[in-house]
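Quick one:
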Amino acid sequence: MARLADYFLVVGYDLDKRVEGEGQGRILQRFPEKDWEDSPFPQGIELFCQPSGWQLVPERQPASFFVAVLTDINSDRHYCACFTFWEGLDNSQLPKAETSEVDEVYEEPAVVQPAQVFAPKSLVLVSRLDYTEVFRNCLGLIYTVHVDGLSVPLETVIGNLLTCVIPIAGGSQRTITLGAGDRQVIQTPIDDSLPVSGSSVAQLFRQLGIVNVLYLFCAALTEHKILFLSSSYQRLTDACRGLLAIMFPLKYSFTYVPILPGKLLEVLSTPTPFIIGVNSFFRSETQELLDVIIADLDGGTVTIPECVHISLLPEPLLQQTQTALSMVLDPELEVADHAFPPTSTQPSALKIQDKEIRAVFLWLFARLFQGYRWCLHIIRIHPDPVIRFHKAAFLCQRALTEDDFLMKVLDGMAFAGFVSERGPPYRATDLFDDLVANHVERIRQEEACPHKVMNHVKELAEKLFKNENPYPSVAMHKVQRPSENSQNTAQNQTPFPGLDDVAVQLFIDHAAAKLKTAPPVVKAEVKGMVPSGPPLGDIVDRNGNVMANSARRLEVVRNCITYIFENKMLEAKKLMPAVLRALKGRAARVCLTQELNQHVLQNRAVLDDQQFDYIVRMMNCTLQDCSHIDEHGIAAALLPLVTAFCRKLGAGITQFAYSCVQEHMVWTTMQFWEAMFYSDVQNHIRALYLETEGEQQNHSEQQDGSGSGRQISALELASEQNRLWPTLSKEMQAERVQKEESTVFSQAIHYANRMSYLLLPLDTSKNRLLRSSGLGDVESVSNSYVTNSIAGSMAESYDTESGFEDAESSDVANSVVRFINRFVDKVCNESGVTNEHLKALHTMIPDIVQMHIETLDAVHRESKRLPPIQKPKLLRPTLLPGEELVMDAMRVHLIPDGREEATGLMGGPPLLPAEGAIFLTTYRLIFKGTPTDPLVGEQVVTRSFPIASLTKEKRISVTLPMDQYVQEGLQLRSSTFQLMKIAFDEEVASDLAEVFRKHMHKLRYPQHVQGTFAFTVGQCGKLVVEHKTKDKNQSLKTLSKNLVKSAKRTIGRQYVTRKKYSPPTWENRSSFQSELDEDEISVSEEVDQSSLTLSSTIRSSDRQTMSNVVERACCRDYQRLGLGTLSNSLTRSKNEPFRISTVNRMYTVCRSYPGLLIVPQSIPDTTIQRICRCYRQNRFPVVCWRNSRTKAVLLRSAGLHAKGVVGFFKSPNAPAAVPSQADSTSLEQEKYLQAIISSMPSYSENSGRNTLSGFTSTHMSTSDSSDKLRQPKIGALMKQVMGTKEDVPGTFSRGGKWGSIRGSGRLSAYNPDVGTRLAGKESPQPNGGPSEALFLRQQKAYLYIIGDKAQLKGGKQDSFQQWEVVPIEVCDVRQVKNSFKKLMKACVPSSPTTDPNMSFQRCLEESEWMALLHRVLQVSVLVVELLDTGSSVMVSLEDGWDVTTQVVSLVQLLSDPYYRTFDGFRLLVEKEWLSFGHRFSHRGAQTLGSQSSGFTPVFLQFLDCVHQIHLQFPMEFEFSQYYLKFLAYHYVSNRFRTFLLDSDYERIELGVLYEEKGERRSPQVCKSVWDYIDRLNKKTPMFYNYMFSPEDEEVLRPYTFISNLKVWDFYMEETLSEGPSYDWELRGRQERVAEETAEKPDTSGPKSQRRIVWPCYDSLSKAVPDAITKLLQDLQSLEAELGQTSEKWKDTWDKIKTTQRTEAKLESKPSFSSSLLMSSNLSHQRRSQGVYLQESGVGSSINLALDCEASATSTPVAGRPSTSTLYSQFQSTESENRSFEGILFKKGALLKPWKPRWFVLDKTKHQLRYYESRQDKECKGVIELADVESVIPGTPAMGAPKNIEEKAFFDLKTTKRVYNFCAQDSLNAQLWMDSVQSCLSDA
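Output:
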């Protein structure tokens, strides 16, 4: 029972006091005067009566009523009902000051002062019950009695009011009367735990709308500040009440002030959350609040400041709640679109609607908190239950660990209150308890169906309504209201009278006395056990997707653990990767803890080292994904295990697993330890009470027959104990309390120990974990495990002698002690441990820690003595014959660099980082090992590169992912586009690493070229030849002796003296470099193998040696080109324009040229010796190629010396006053050039004869006989090359190949369309080819000199000369060097980058490599054009050995198909690169001397250009792309001698050039790359291009724009499985090893035929060979099986090719199969369209070509079969594929009629097709002839066509069914049968 009203007050305006111009109220009277004991009088009521301030007004205002809520110090709420009316005051009554106040307030002019002002007076009723309407009626009644002057004394009414007592709850109905003839009925709610809301919730939703209220709801639950604004006070109170009502079952526990007086507005800046209401009058004051959510009830808005983030309900709850609410508030919404909406969809009445909304929220909370009782820990039962909530477990089981909203709610005060209020297991239950326990299943099934949800909501709403209004028919109110006239008459002057205190007090005392004598009202509270509902485990959320085949994974985990404990370590090791992968899943982790538990006996499990290691690894893997709150309870389950598993280290020293699993965040989280502690305490307390009840329990169970009846949960036990508690004696009670307390205490001690285990590191001298974290707010330090040997080695690396050791260890101890103390304080206070015990604990903890530190020291000491962890076995690399190890295996880790393929980021397995060893051999640097990631541990990773290709070595320090400490490492970059980042293992001493670097340097930069691998191969790797004096080297042949001698003599006579070569020392290397620049020998060029130095000048003794020279390839090439013949008599036919000169036979004229050179016939050798001085390095112009058609020649030379240029070009004809040597040489030079021009047939004396042999061009202008031929000049192309920008009208030159668009080839069939299209009138060619221009000068030059722009400045052209200089910009060697560096960094970045400016494309562009290729190709194409139009070209750029060589070689490659074969390409390289002295050693920085000049890959650039051309013309090259890669790799590898040294002169000097064939020391060592390629090519078709089908005399003109160039895949690809594939012997050996291992019986079950090919791991060409290679391999293996001697692949290939050719000739129409196999049959097609396959299957590529023909729209060239006929082979409608066709009747399926169909028998496709009619193109069906078994005469069946003879029927029997046919007559039928039969027999 409770009083209806605690206090009654009269509050009035205080006339005496004013503060700062504001009026104040004061309490005039208060009843009772004394405070009640149970409810003190609330302070400050006068503020709340007039929240906007006390003021006088000039007019009477209507009486008002509202309820304010005050909260007292005990957080009890007092409801203050304020009834305010206005009383008049005469002016005379007011003190003077007051009158002025009225003026101030109402700002009326002082002239008219009102006679009367009105002051407010309030009647206030203070109660702890919230009955708004009753209060309104009571106060109204008192006012009515006063106003209407009823006969009842006010004292009686007030006395009755204050003595009225009503029950709080229970659904009773009470009638009260105040003795003024009134009567009221009060209904008490059935259950007072449910809030009473009237219709306030519905009002709130009407005012603000669904979304806004949901925002407020979430904000209130997540503890934000909420402010309501309204101009009505009652509405503020209602809104606040409504918001609180929907928060049920949570109770709001922060500041709650529905009406805040204006004077207290500063409360709004409080830092704590609140719900406050303020009158809109004060809106402006609320503007500057930054973190308050403002809800304006009048305007219906909710304003959320920017800085506030409200976490909303998790989906799908939010959506479902919104749907449900809109169905309650706006039921019409659903049917708004219906054509026939139902008639009544009105929302319920406001009161009902209010309950429906609350029901929705109740339903929502039931879903949010379902299963919460399973996460309660009961830690004390007596004297009062103490309960804790296990948040982590709850979140985990709901799978909402990430959810912001739920996290905040569970952390909030409201939820803490919820747990303490609803946690106790034995109490009265309410609607929510019932809902969350018994309706979970229903809610879950219905949640997706809104209508079922609505039904449930309606049921709940009904219960809520019933709770508030238990008796529906209450109409018994009778309360007087003041009569109308009394309210309005201003005459009623009597103020509210003072009341008689004594009379009122008498009533109160009287009632109190009565209460004392009355018997106490006993309301039996129905307590009972709170049901828990279904356990959470059953409620698997929808997102908690079960991991695929988890059962299989758990099986793997179980097996692995079993193997470990059965000591089957090999088996366990095999399973380990799979286990670690499985442990990512929660189920597997739980399984692991359960399995390990079974191996623990009496809290101990002693393991051996390896078992211990595995178990620790698994534990670490399990823990590393645990978050710090351990929501899955994994760490909790492991906690007892880490103190159980151990290993013996020595006498009495045991190491436990916990010392190896400390690295995880979870151990430093206080929440985790608390949850663990509480769950343990709960288990112990449960055990405590189970014992006491054990006997009864067993007894009842046997009766049940259930035997193992379901375990009683701790909560159920507690509930039972609470029920019995009052019945126990005092002693029993005390005993139980004491038992529980000591249980908690013992657990606290246990946990202090456990925490010290996991927080004290093994090596207490230093503790990374604690120091970095400050314990408690740790970020994870690492997820790896540190086993002892690592931990040990780390300890040594620390500076233990710093003298701070004690300080540090004590520091660790202190921090651990502090952490444990904090924990103990918290849990003991919460679980009610006595103070004595707590003190005892505090003294124990430091001792526990200290003791533990001492045991750890011993363990640490011993663990350092352990043998190191078993590391992966080192794998030995296979070495080449003659390759030897310089340094044996050094254990390293290969760290991933910027290439992402190997790290698994782009899909595929993480192959790197890998651990293994690095080997340094005389030839290579090899890493071989296995990936660190155990899931790919079986793969072998190999990365290697030739030591000679090392371009940069840099020291780095690396933090390995496995360990915490930094290691030293090296980053090694190779010009074969390889990068190795290695970190030395800790077992590698740092001085060893230094030795490794020194050895590497020595091998990379030998003193002399003879120190390179190509020379030392087969010798002992340790001896690097020290080369003292070269002359004494006995191994040189007689030739070289003689040559060198005579060279020395001649050199002596020449103007240069030969310095003696001595290898420089390290110190004076820089000075040596400058010497090199002056010294001529440094200009080391290569000798041309065409050095036919045979001449009468050579003495006979040398002749036999020189016969070697005749065999040299270049000489053969000169003969092939007709540039000079060698007859034995050495007589020359005088009519030949060129001769082979031996002027350089002693390498005296030019040391970097070959011995034999082609010069014009008319120039004597003496002239040559003079001319050569004008050119740099004496490299004068010599002929290197002649166009067989136009007879134009290609010459090469170096650039001119400056003086030469001046004399030669500036004023050639100016008479010189003093004839100087310069003049004479320039004249001779002129003569030399003139001689070359004269040699050209097109240059004839001015007779009209046109001797341009065979050159008739369709677009020559009609030539005057007197005029020189006006030929198209290559103007535009030249402009592109030279960089001027004039537009020239274009014409088109002779057909050739323009970048893979085939021109006509035969001039007669020239198609003018193509010409204009290609020439493109105004624009230069889009493909980078020239749009040619008409002549600018009248005549074309006979000789173009391609020179360097920089050199030719100032030279003016002479219009009478026949040569013209084309100045171009060439790329400097330095540019190439820098560009290459950048290219390497782009293709092989050293570290991954996220910077968009560092993307691959951007880096590639910045390297400018493509631009350089473009420039070289462009110049080459220009030269090709010039030569093709009949002009000769002399390329004289830089020193004549870099760019010149590139251009000259490319020109020959493009112009002459011979150079596109194996032999030709070899010849080209030998002639132009080796003989003409490209400085391979210098550019490749192959020796110590050239180290500083750096690596400049001029030759690689050339190969890249060839690769670009190869891509555009895949059918023109005999060799494949692999051949180019092979050369690119080996030209820097120094494996062969071919690309060593700088010129033929040097090679002869070393005796390398003409080594005799029988003299090879070890036959297996190839010294020349060409021999090696030949040998390989015989064995395997690797280098061969199957698409090779050249056209005669084809000139290629590739596209050269950068957009047409592709990045060469040589730069990008890598094969980690075997390393680079260019050392072929290694591949063979590895395969053999693999075969041997594979021979073991394999019991693993059926093997799949599929193979996974990983990027950057497998060799693609091996895994997916192209079709023809595959066929050839199959042939060979079949031959081997049959015991035949297998043919060489080339023979087989050529045989097939010739048979195909003959077949193709025999058949008029090419059969499909032949055209597929033989690309040569496609030669009449535009071949390179779509044919783009270099090293893969040919079949597919040709199909591509055929397909794209269909869409090609180019005009077919006349005189060729049109491409469409080619395509039409595939179209079944064409006649050629129809071997036989006609009409047949076919019997349909069962009950279907016979139908005539048009049948076609197709031999090619081997099928019988049928169509509706002859014209029909859609095939209706196909019978595959392969399936046909027989064709037999048939019998007429049912429904067959009439009047057809019997023999016309025949049947076709297939494997699937029998077809019945009928022909027109028997003859026809016979024909069909024969045709089908012949088809079958052919097949």
